[in-house]
Amino acid sequence: MSTLSSRAAERPVAFRGAAARSAGLIVAIVVLLIAVLLSLMVGAKSLAPPTVIAALIDFDGSDAQAIVRDSRLPRTIVGLVVGPALGVCGALIQAFTRNPLADPGILGVNAGATFAVTIGVGLLGVRGPNSYVWFALIGALLVTLVVYLIGASGRGGPSAGRMTLAGVAIGAVLSGVTSIVMLKNMEVFTTLRFWGLGSLGGRDESAVAIIAPFIAVGLVISFLVARPLNAIALGDDLGRTLGAGLIRTRVISIIGVTILAGGATALAGPIAFIGLMVPHAVRWFTGPDQRWIIAFSAVVAPSMLLLSDVIGRVVLPTGELQVSIVTAVLGAPVLIALARRKRVSGL
Q1: Contact 302/234 with Cβ under 8 angstroms?
Q2: Which residue among 1, 124, 173, 311 has its CA within the 20 to 30 Å range from the CA of 330?
Q3: What does the alpha-carbon distance between residue 310 and residue 329 come to, in Å, rounded to a whole number?
Q4: What is the C-alpha R_g of the chain?
Q5: Cα(5)–Cα(198) distance, rounded to whole angstroms?
Q6: SS in 3 state form for the chain?
């Protein structure tokens, strides 16, 4: 742990000490509450905070309060469920692959989940997000295993470069096949058109109820492997010396990534960049300790997702600019800024 502490000390802007990190986490929670309030207030018709509060605790059936209860509250709940899954999944996958470029999108996990859902809809006649979840989990698991095995093959053990190349290649192939299946079958295209764009709106409440427990289990798994991941980050030999079970930790991590990525994709569709940029951003403040990175990612990611969704509603108030488009637009400059701070955002 002394080596871990020395790595943290090298990061000039990282918080030092549990008290400072706890204070930062409280600030992040406050920002999340603000994002939730904005998600309920802002849209084609802006609503005042008293109207929002009244809609939640004393619903009178007015049009304004109905907007909150029927439209904005469901998509806010979806953001609160999907956001932590994307952020923590990114932190977990970067830690166990020791690849700072890893995220469910770049490693093809989202593409695998999307491909499996498309096959389920196109070939097996599956309909509704309630059924998507199982196909998304299977697709995410298979792609995660294949990418990791390819990256771990060869001399020198797991390679971040091999995993990234394998993930990009597999993701491109699966995305292409998915597009072909959708274009050849207009019924599949129509069924998955809105889901495949990645959005928080239009999701069934029963789907949220089914998928939320999966994501909760994934979050618990992530926190359980945080300490062993700290040891593995120091290298396999040193991690083994510190008592970390390398195979056990990686297997559990893959299970966590599968549940989080598959659940989030099944509910909201593929949403890129959140899983990549949030762990980088929080690592700048927390240092390399995975326990804090996972905790901060679970709070910061839903804030970013909800604020991106609000921006999409403001930019295109007469329709809807899907949140995946907004996160992609915001993600590029943020990642460029973080790349210029390689010393503090690297693993």
Answers
A1: no
A2: 173
A3: 14
A4: 20
A5: 39
A6: CHHHHHHHHCCCCCCCCHHHHHHHHHHHHHHHHHHHHHHHHCCCCCCCHHHHHHHHHCCCCCHHHHHHHHHHHHHHHHHHHHHHHHHHHHHHHHHHHCCCCCCCCCCCHHHHHHHHHHHHHHHHCCCCHHHHHHHHHHHHHHHHHHHHHHHHCCCCCCCHHHHHHHHHHHHHHHHHHHHHHHHHCHHHHHHHCCHHHCCCCCCCHHHHHHHHHHHHHHHHHHHHCHHHHHHHCCCHHHHHHCCCCHHHHHHHHHHHHHHHHHHHHHHHCCCCCHHHHHHHHHHHHHCCCHHHHHHHHHHHHHHHHHHHHHHHHHHCCCCCCCHHHHHHHHHHHHHHHHHCCHHHHCC
d(CA 164, CA 162): 5
Digit-by-digit pLDDT tens for the chain (347 residues) are 444 444 544 444 455 677 888 899 999 999 999 999 999 998 878 888 888 888 888 888 788 888 888 889 999 999 999 999 999 999 998 888 777 777 777 778 888 888 888 888 888 877 766 677 788 888 888 888 888 888 777 776 667 677 778 888 898 898 888 888 888 877 777 777 767 777 888 777 888 888 899 899 999 999 999 988 888 777 777 777 777 777 788 888 888 888 898 888 888 888 878 888 899 889 888 888 899 999 999 999 999 999 999 998 888 766 667 888 888 888 777 777 766 665 545 55
Half-sphere exposure of residue 269: CA atoms within 13 angstroms, side-chain side = 18
User: Could you tell me the two tokens for 29?
Assistant: 């929670």
What does DSSP assign to residue 196? Answer: G
* This prediction's pTM: 0.84
Query: Cα dist. 69→40, 45, 209, 304 in Å?
Result: 9, 14, 17, 22
